[in-house]
Design goal:
354 residues; mainly alpha; single chain; 3% strand; 64% helix
Length: 354
C-alpha cells in the first residue's frame, strides 16, 4: 500500500523531495492471514469432550476391557471348557485365582473369554444403531415437507417397539442364535432415541449462517451434512453411541441370564445363569457370581463416566461449574467452602489518620 506524505523542509532529510511516497507492507505481507480451519482441526475440537477427567477415567476402564477381549486367548490361564475333576467348587487359590465351577471349570478363564462376547455385541449394536440414528435423524431434521414427516413417523414407530420380546421371538427361530444376530436386533431397536435428539438439533442447525452460506455457495447435500453439520453434532452422536453400548450390554447379559442366549456362548450373563442354576447363590459360592457381576458394574461405571464427561462438555452450566471447580482446586480451595477469600488493599494515609 502506497501512502503520500508531505513534509516541510525542516522535517525532511537532505537531498529528498518535498513529497515522498512511503510504501507500507500489505496486511497479508506484514501479518499471517487467519487460516481456514481444516477438517482435522474441526474433528479435534469435536472430540474435545473426551479431554476432561471423567471421560478419561471412563475411557481407561473401557480400554482395559477392550484389551482383555482382544487378548483373551493369551490372558486366560485355561480353556473356559477345560474340566478339572479334582477341583470342583474350589474357592480362589494359586491354581485358580477366581475358583472353579461345579464341574471344575476355571471361573477366571470364563470371565476373560466372556468379555469378548460382551464387547463385540455392545460395540456392534452401538455402531448399527448410531449409523441408523445419524442417517434418519439428520436427514429428517435437514429435509422439509413430507420426507421429514415420514422419517419422523418411522422413528416414532421404532420408539414403541418392545425390545426384549422381539429379541426372544427372533432368537426362538434359531437353535443356536449367533451373537452377531443378537447385536443386529439390539441395534435395530436401539436407534430411535438417538435419531429424535439428532433431528431436533439438526433442525436448529439448518438455519445457522454457516449452513445457509454453504447452501448459497451451491455445496452438495452430502458435503453440507458431513462437513458443516456432523462436527457440530459429534457430542450428541458420542452420547448416543455410549448410551447404546450400555443398553446393548445390559440387554445381552439379561437375555443370557434368563436363558434366551445359549449357555454355550460365553459371556458374563451365561456365567451368572450357570451359577444360579447350580445353586451358587444359596450355597454362598461367591467366587462364581461376584466376578462377572463386578465386571458388569465396572463397565457400566466406565460408560457412565464417559457419558457424564460428554454431558459436562455439552451443557454450558456444567462446563462452567467444572472449570470453576478445577480453578479452585488449583488454588487449594474446595468447592464446598463457604468462606470466600477477599484480597484487602493497603490502607491510604487518610484512612490511617481516621
Amino acid at each position: 500500500m502506497d501512502t503520500i506524505v508531505n513534509e516541510t523542509s525542516a522535517q525532511r532529510p537532505a537531498n529528498t523531495p518535498a513529497t515522498a511516497t512511503v510504501r507500507t507492507p500489505a496486511l497479508s505481507e506484514s501479518t499471517d492471514a487467519p487460516q481456514k480451519p481444516t477438517f482435522r482441526s474441526k474433528l479435534g475440537s469435536a472430540f474435545a469432550m473426551f479431554r476432561n477427567g471423567k471421560s478419561i477415567a471412563g475411557l481407561a476402564i473401557l480400554g482395559f476391557f477392550v484389551l482383555v477381549a482382544i487378548f483373551a486367548d493369551v490372558l486366560a490361564p485355561y480353556s473356559p471348557t477345560k474340566v478339572d475333576n479334582t477341583a470342583r467348587f474350589q474357592p480362589p487359590s494359586a491354581a485358580h485365582w477366581l475358583g472353579t465351577t461345579h464341574i471344575g471349570e476355571d471361573v477366571l478363564s470364563q470371565v476373560i473369554h466372556g468379555t469378548r462376547g460382551v464387547i463385540v455385541v455392545g460395540f456392534l449394536a452401538a455402531i448399527i444403531a448410531t449409523f441408523l440414528a445419524i442417517v434418519v435423524g439428520v436427514m429428517s431434521g435437514y429435509l422439509r415437507g413430507w420426507r421429514s414427516e415420514g422419517l419422523s413417523a418411522l422413528t416414532n414407530v421404532f420408539l414403541v417397539i418392545p425390545g426384549i420380546p422381539l429379541i426372544i421371538i427372533v432368537a426362538s427361530m434359531f437353535e443356536d442364535p449367533p451373537l452377531i444376530l443378537v447385536a443386529g436386533v439390539l441395534g435395530l431397536i436401539g436407534w430411535a432415541w438417538g435419531a429424535r435428539v439428532l433431528r431436533a438439533q439438526t433442525m436448529s442447525l439448518r438455519s445457522r449462517d454457516f449452513v445457509l452460506a454453504a447452501k448459497a455457495n451451491g455445496e452438495p447435500l452430502h458435503r453440507i451434512i458431513t462437513v458443516e453439520m456432523l462436527p457440530n453434532l459429534m457430542a450428541l452422536i458420542a452420547a448416543s453411541f455410549v448410551g447404546t453400548v450400555t443398553a446393548a450390554i445390559i440387554g445381552l447379559t439379561t437375555l443370557s441370564y434368563i436363558g434366551i442366549i445359549p449357555v454355550t456362548t460365553y459371556n458374563w450373563g451365561t456365567i451368572l445363569n450357570w451359577a444360579s442354576a447350580q445353586g451358587a447363590f444359596r450355597q454362598g459360592q461367591w467366587w462364581w457370581f461376584v466376578p462377572p457381576g463386578l465386571c458388569i458394574a465396572a463397565i457400566g461405571v466406565a460408560l457412565s463416566l464417559i457419558n457424564f464427561g460428554i454431558d459436562e462438555y455439552v451443557n454450558p452450566r456444567l462446563r462452567s461449574a467444572g472449570e470453576r471447580a478445577r480453578a479452585l482446586k488449583k488454588k487449594g480451595m474446595s468447592v464446598n467452602d463457604t468462606v470466600t477469600a477477599v484480597r484487602t488493599a493497603p490502607a491510604t494515609p487518610r484512612q490511617e489518620n481516621l
